[in-house]
């Protein structure tokens, strides 16, 4: 089997390493078959899409809607690299699944309107598949209404005509979409479980996701409902696209 690639941007080692472990666990892949590339540590290497089965993108600290002058040199480099990669990915309709930061990369590439209108605190939300989502193969085996972990400072307010909306929530209308047949993005985190999101809550305290006195409230918020189904997306993606 040709390997899959995980493009990551987390600078903090603990949540970065745990993110990789979670992708390994829920895709069912081993380290030989899921190559992690930490983009915050250096330039994106040349990726020959003929040599890989598909691409995952994890979450990260960057916001596509930040003013250019507020973006660090690393963020500007990473965004430029994603733009070039997505030119090829979208043109070839190559298997791609971006989570959280990944939805911003695809959305920005396709001309979506991205701002803080539908930001969500770290929590569990109820996600509902659209009519298109109910028949999409990547959502096979997942109930039409399910709970998922979220936590983001920006979100897509308006999708471009090239995108098909697959799932929504009351507080964030664009929770999942598809471009073409094989390029996917989710606002929610399909890779997370309770332990994983707890690690991130502690790691990113003080990063603006919640107030200094809201740590315990945030830890409680991610336990208010069981999250059992989103990780199936990752295994289905691998089953569908491994070659």
TrEMBL record:
<feature type="domain" description="Glutamine amidotransferase">
    <location>
        <begin position="49"/>
        <end position="193"/>
    </location>
</feature>
<protein>
    <submittedName>
        <fullName>Glutamine amidotransferase</fullName>
    </submittedName>
</protein>
<dbReference type="InterPro" id="IPR017926">
    <property type="entry name" value="GATASE"/>
</dbReference>
<dbReference type="InterPro" id="IPR044992">
    <property type="entry name" value="ChyE-like"/>
</dbReference>
<dbReference type="Pfam" id="PF00117">
    <property type="entry name" value="GATase"/>
</dbReference>
<dbReference type="InterPro" id="IPR029062">
    <property type="entry name" value="Class_I_gatase-like"/>
</dbReference>
<keyword id="KW-0315">Glutamine amidotransferase</keyword>
